[in-house]
């Protein structure tokens, strides 16, 4: 199978009502690893992820996968900061993306049950998804995003509202997915989380990539005063 | 009951085989004569007559459009125009009933001494006694206007009250106001809420209300069931029809007089 | 008051004696209304979903027209359908006037805008929830609409019941296109109108009570069916 990566952004810009939300951004996402998109509130983390996933249309610049856009769209998934679930059972939620792709019901159900085992959702399969707790919802959203075995997974603050135990569970699943060959691009405001699991870091400021590179190098020796201030917990304007 | 409902739901939607669709006026339907006539027609001729009950104007429109096979109405001028326009080859008089002038028992306009219908109306106009008019362009309303016209009076003024409603509603209004009103005898006899009202004038041939049968011309509307119309017409003009129509009674009174030739 | 009590007695008498005429016109009422409802739902529900999902230039105008059509007097619908189906009208050759089919057509015209409008409102809220997810999952337009229809089924049932209520109680339009012919196109509502005109108030009220009972039964049955569904659809 021809890989969908690398993803290349050139002067990619997103504006709404004349205001720049993100960009111009030049960035290449190559195969393998976990990229953490970090930066202060309002720096454009969510907008960048949505733009890369195709939920927002570029105002200017270019965004290219190594495959045609229509094919690329089928090889990626997205986990929203506030999990969105269908008003159906957990099982139906897990099978849904497969059914959209025309997978027969029996096969879809089998794969849904398999991933439910991995994500410890088996006991919840027959429950209506909207009745789950926050941690369960996020596990379901992540499992549903991974059931199609995407090459790229975008995750927007996947642990934003979770307690320590749920966060640890989600991180374990994220790492397992990355080990399984899925390229992860996630935003986070939790620097501890970024240090724990990221291989690369993109530091956004005012909608632009202020600094980027391997996670270890970034956290050990940030190159810019703003990145240093941010990592120190100062307010960066 | 449920099984009967299900069975009926599964029945086909279409109508039966030999049927005649006939547009008739509300006053005819309200007289109750149809409930006696139609079963006899079906038994004698095998034709099921389906009545579409509407106002006179709408009945003639349905006929002109070819949506019914025949029309049975009581509005001579309109019928003659209908024939002249070629919708029906002729009009065949079948029977008549009559209109009565109903008013308060005290009879303030002294209709008891009226010599004919024109005189009765003249007395109402002269005393300015309240008068309720249907005002809905129905056959009864047209008959009322023709009577005023024949009396040489243009009814106008606060005493003349067109209500724009059906016969029952007009009678109710007249009772409420203690007014005179023109009604067909059948409606009056069947009317429950008479209050202090009674028939104030009746019997003038000018008050006769002729019903005519008009078959729709198959040359103009090939889809009409002309054979069934012919069968029903010949039954309606037969001696059997004479016995049924003349023998029909409401509250002991004869309503219709057969006069087909 | 006496007329109402007499109406109650009359209704009980008709039901207890399984009055043949009553069964016939009740069955025809249900046949006409349920057929019209089925057709109107097949048009109105996807239309409502489509209007919620699709952004196009005249969307607001279409929704405004839809809401205006809800207020259309049934008599006007009846008259227009009559003019179309009349032997002298453009569809006269079909010979549908004064048949239950003509009544179904009129009812479909009357209740489809109502069903589409209620469905649209419900679907719009659901779509606000689902929008990003379904776009992200690359759902086709048709898949988006069907997902909304399935997950919004409770709201859609409400829309269908509103349509049913309006159709089963409708009299103006079906009187014109059906003709209220005894044994062919007479239904509960036109029979009620007829008996009112004849002054048989007790019988008219009795038929009205039966009509309300049927509406209650249908509403109750559909809510019960939805509550007892064991497994969600997919």
Q: What does it look like?
A:
The complex is a heterotrimer of chains A (237), B (261) and C (234). Chain A is an alpha/beta fold and 237 residues long. Chain A has a domain at 7-85 and 152-231: Rossmann fold. Chain A has helices spanning 45-53, 69-73, 90-100, 105-118, 134-146, 164-179, 191-197, 215-220, 225-231, and strands spanning 7-16, 19-29, 34-38, 60-64, 76-79, 152-156, 183-187, 200-205, 208-214. The model of chain A has no long low-confidence stretch (mean pLDDT 90). Chain B has 261 residues and is an alpha/beta fold. Chain B folds into two domains: 19-96 and 209-258, Periplasmic binding protein-like II (D-Maltodextrin-Binding Protein, domain 2, 3-Layer(aba) Sandwich), CATH 3.40.190.10; 97-207, Periplasmic binding protein-like II (D-Maltodextrin-Binding Protein, domain 2, 3-Layer(aba) Sandwich). In chain B, the strands form two sheets. In chain B, strands 1, 2, 3, 4, 5, 6, 7, 8, 9 and 12 form a ten-stranded mixed sheet that branches. In chain B, strand 5, helix 7 (139-150) and strand 6 (160-162) form a beta-alpha-beta unit. Chain B binds chain C through residues 1, 4-5, 7-9, 13-16, 19, 21, 26, 29-30, 48, 50-53, 64-67, 166, 168, 190-192, 221, 223, and chain C through 18, 23-24, 26-28, 30-31, 34, 86-89, 92, 95, 97-101, 179-184, 194, 197-199.
Q: What's this, in brief?
A:
Chain A: Residues 7-231 form the ABC transporter domain. The complex is a heterotrimer of chains A (237), B (261) and C (234). Chain A has 237 residues and is α/β, with parallel strands linked by helices.
Fold topology:
The complex is a heterotrimer of chains A (237), B (261) and C (234).
Chain A: E1 7-16, E2 19-29, E3 34-38, H1 45-53, E4 60-64, H2 69-73, E5 76-79, H3 90-100, H4 105-118, H5 134-146, E6 152-156, H6 164-179, E7 183-187, H7 191-197, E8 200-205, E9 208-214, H8 215-220, H9 225-231
Parallel strand pairs in A: 3-7, 3-8, 5-6, 6-7
Antiparallel strand pairs in A: 1-2, 1-4, 8-9
Helix pairs in contact in A: 3-4, 3-5, 4-5, 5-6
Chain B: H1 2-10, E1 19-25, H2 26-31, H3 33-45, E2 48-54, H4 56-64, E3 70-73, H5 76-84, E4 92-104, H6 117-127, E5 131-133, H7 139-150, E6 160-162, H8 167-177, E7 180-184, H9 185-190, E8 197-201, E9 208-215, H10 226-236, H11 239-246, E10 249-250, E11 253-254, E12 257-258
Chain C: H1 2-16, H2 20-53, H3 59-70, H4 74-85, H5 100-136, H6 141-151, H7 153-168, H8 172-178, H9 188-198, H10 201-227
